[in-house]
Amino acid sequence: MNPLTLELVNFRAIPFAHIDLTDVTIAAICGRNGAGKSSGFTMAPRFALFGDVIEGVSMDDLVKRGTQDMAVTFTFEHQGSTYRTIRTRSLKGNGKSTLEFQQQINDRWESKSAEKIKDTEAVIRSLLNLDDETFTASSMIMQGKANEFTAKSAGKRKEILQQILGLNIYERLQEAARHKAAALHIEIEKAKDKLAEHDARLLLKPSRIELIENLTRESDDMKSFILVKEAALVQQEEKIRILQTNAEKSAELKSQVASILRELAPLQLEKESLLAKLGRAEKILSREAEIVTNTDEFYLAKEQIAALEARLPDQERLASELEHMELSILHLKNELDPLDHRIRNLQQLLQSRVLFMAKADEYKAACIQLTQTEQLAEQWDSIEKEILDIRAKVSVEQTRINTTKSLLESEIRMLQTKTSMLADSNCIDVTKAACLFLSDAQDAKQLLDSKNEEFSMLDHSLLNKLNESLNSLNESQQKIGYDFAAHRALKITIEELRPMAEEASQMQAKEELLVSLQAQSTRLIDQVGELEQKQHNTQNELRTLLEALAPLPVLRLRVENLQAWANLKEQIGAAREARQSSTARIAAIDSEVQAKEERKQTIEEEISLLQLNLLSLDSEVALLPTFKRDLQQLHDRQHKLIEQLGGLKIELASLEKDEQSRLQLSNELEPKAKKWSRYQTLIRAFGRDGIPALIIENAVPQLERIANEILGKMSKGKHFIRFETQRELKSRDGVQETLDIIIGDWTSERPYETFSGGEQLRIDYAIRFALAELLAQRAGSKVEWLTIDEGLGSQDAEHRGLVLESIKAVADRFKKVLVITHIEEAQAVFEQQIYFENTDAAVRVNVA
């Protein structure tokens, strides 16, 4: 796993930052305290990958104060593919979090997220084969927590090592094996119980076979009795059916009589209606002459009304025209009022024309002067940019020289200490001393002269050259003669004059506008006069039309009164036809009624004959339940026999299945017993004394070897580390599990806790580097970067240099090593620096 980019929005104190780590290998993270270095390089990746995992800090506390929304985008390379996580947190409402996980496929990002955040986090952990604790232990040494491993008790260290090595998986495997063995044991016991149940039930099989044979014979005899009874029942039902048919025929004939009676009733009603219709027709025909006279008067009045109504549209038209003219006059007068107001305003403005033209001339002169001043400002800014660049280079060069001096002074002091041993050795000829310590002192004496010469010959030429360039640029800048205050005052003057200059440029256009508005006002006044004259003429024409339409209401009332006589005239022809048709229909009804009466008498005679045959129906029907009851009793007995046979056959089939099931259970029992025995073996293998113990015993020597390689570089071979994994019990025989840290030097061995703070820090670093590399080698997902947060403050200058050299020495074990430090001498040691620079809107991150 190798980080590529980090993008932070409102994360803790960082409003915005984009960090590109693509080309970074080993770098110092620089910036003032509180700039966000630790937040960006330790908290942000953990939050993006694993969420709410930062101890003592809630997700809401990660949102920058004064804002509502926060987001972290982390892009990384893993196993040849590029991935990114985008995690957000919003404080709006009840608060909301989102997590998007994507993989880059060609030039597009493809989502790998699950439906829920916790499921997406599980996808990330599965891909990386890491949780937050293991990720942090393998890739980060947090500020003030370098001794997080070594400061623990010996027993706790071993537990942590087991977690780092992922040995807790064997506890889960052992628990899973126990569950499997317990489940198999339950299955075996259940199988044994079922075998006993099958054996008990199979003892009933012979008696059930004999009972089935006896019931089968009894069922066959019962079928013969049922057939005899069913034939007698059929004969009785046929006799009753014939009698019921006659009864149905009698009922049908009675229905026909009722139908004839129903048919006679409407004929009688129709005859009465026809007689009434005949009377109305005779009445209309008796007043025929009076109806014709009033109808002629009706049509004459309608003609007069039509002539007058034809002139009604003219009335509506004239009224509409008058309304339209009134609105037009009102609209024109409404246009005249604002037009006159604009004309008066323009006349007042044009009276100040001379003043505006003078201000326009002042504006042009000021603009020319501003152009010249801005040219001087550009020259000043160009030189200022060069000065800032050279000052940055001076700072870097000064830091390099100071760091080199510091390292050389540390080496010289150490060499002088070793050289002083020659004077205190009391040897006759110190040049021929052969002991190990004096030999080392002689080597130091030879090296001391070369280091003193190197210190005196430090190259300051580049620094001097940069200072000369800086002085030259300062002189050139002062010669320009640029005045910032005058520049600013000139801009203010131009802004004040610009509105009046713009007004002056528009004077000619406003004179032309005044002439146009005055002409428009005259045209509107003329239009108002023309419309008022036309309105007067239309009013006279409407008054004449209303006098002509005055008789119309009287004529409409007369037509309404005569309408009934016109309607009667239309009914004269129909009355003649009604008189003729009604007379003929009344004669036909009289003939049809006589025929129906004769048919009714014939049907009633046939009903009397059928009633005589139906006297025996009730007695025959009364015998039918006896026949059915006897037959039902036989059927019930037959059904009971069938149910008993069915139940016995089902029981026999179940017993046969029991035989098969018993055979199957017997065959399955032996493999399950063997499988249960294998799970018992796995339970012992996954226990503390099994595979985990072998892994620990193999891992500790590897951890010890890596830690000694790193500590040897930091202490120049003075110290070495040894781990003890078991300790003898004092109170009784036996050993206890432990992980003691024993540190040795040239003289003896002693526990880690007895060393000084600076020595402990170097030991902490050596063990933490070794743990990170061990985990990277053993984990299924290798973390290929290391972050060290403010871990050099407790070291003196000499040992700080050794620690820095050790960090650089282990850098080739990782693709990226990032060291967060505020110590300038330490920053200068690294070829790459990442600067955190705060602004109001963002944190600018520069990789140099």
Automatic annotation (TrEMBL):
Keywords from the named record: Coiled coil
InterPro entries per UniProt: P-loop_NTPase
Keyword flag Coiled coil: yes
Keyword Glycoprotein: no
Quaternary state and interactors: Heterodimer of SbcC and SbcD.
Similarity comment text for this entry: Belongs to the SMC family. SbcC subfamily.
Name of the featured protein: Nuclease SbcCD subunit C
Coiled-coil ranges per UniProt: 174-201, 305-335, 500-548, 586-620
